[in-house]
Amino acid sequence: MAIPLNWYKETALVIREGLEKAGSPIPRVALVLGSGLGGLEEEMEQAAVFSYEDLPHMPQPSALGHAGTLTCGRLSGRETAVLSGRIHAYEGYTMEETAYAVRVLLLLGVRTLILTNAAGAVNPSFHPGELMLVTDHIKLTADSPARGKLPAVFGPMFPDMSQVYALRLRELALRCAREEGIALREGCYFYMPGPQYETPAEIRAVRSLGGDAVGMSTVAEAIAGAQGGMEVAAISCLTNMAAGMVTEHTLGHEEVRQTAALAADSFRRLLRRFVGSL
Ligand code: HPA
Fold first, then answer.
1. Which tens digit of pLDDT belongs to each residue from 129-152?
2. For ligand 1, which residues put their CB under 6 angstroms from it?
3. Which among 4, 24, 122, 165 could bridge 19 via Cys, Cβ 3.0 to 4.6 Å?
4. Index of the ligand 1 atom closest to the CA of residue 121
5. CA of 205 to the centre of ligand 1 (A)
6. How far from each other are the two terminal CA atoms of the chain, in whole angstroms?
């Protein structure tokens, strides 16, 4: 069953009214913060903060490190919405639900979507703590945010996916990284539904299929954004080598959070410049 258009409209209305009351600008850019990457929302000007709990129909996040707030205001001078707290399919949601906020933001007028995430490095030349600009993704699972009878405002039924991650934004991100002196890798993000981490055999399969990093988020939002005509960019924080790539190593959420926290400063610097350059 498709989520009714009215739900999206009702959520968008509550946000629009809140922005008006707070004197905050209507966002044009949205930034989705991944595991342990929060913090940027605190430096926003003219900020209006919405708890997901106060937004009608908004799916609620349950993963540790995901706060569940939408902050709208100015980041580096740009009218920006920052989503801290993303919804993952592994929490029991459909991809349509995980992309809910993106479509609400589309109704509000957001045209640029920047997604961030924590991911495991599959490319053996990558290292934990590095950042990777997503050039493309692979999703071989059945669910899709485009599935079902989608309201026409959210895009065509058979959306083109030949350039989900806009070349213009990728070039801009690379330039911003150079200017900040931050090494930014480039690669293909392979979506795995989780919540269990992968087996070493799965990671070997991911590698032979062309994945450079593996993660459990981002693609639903990226597909919905691209389908709706947004320019999309995604940057991964490589928090660990993927399963089986380092001997005698067990993977856990704590390691992911700790490495993301170590890289958070340079990640924030890159995002500030990136948003300011849009
Ligand atoms: N696999 C899947 N998701 C992840 C990983 C990983 O190794 N690290 C951070 N998110």
1. 999 999 999 999 999 999 999 999
2. 118-120, 192, 197-198, 214-216, 239-240, 242, 251, 256
3. 24
4. 7
5. 15
6. 36
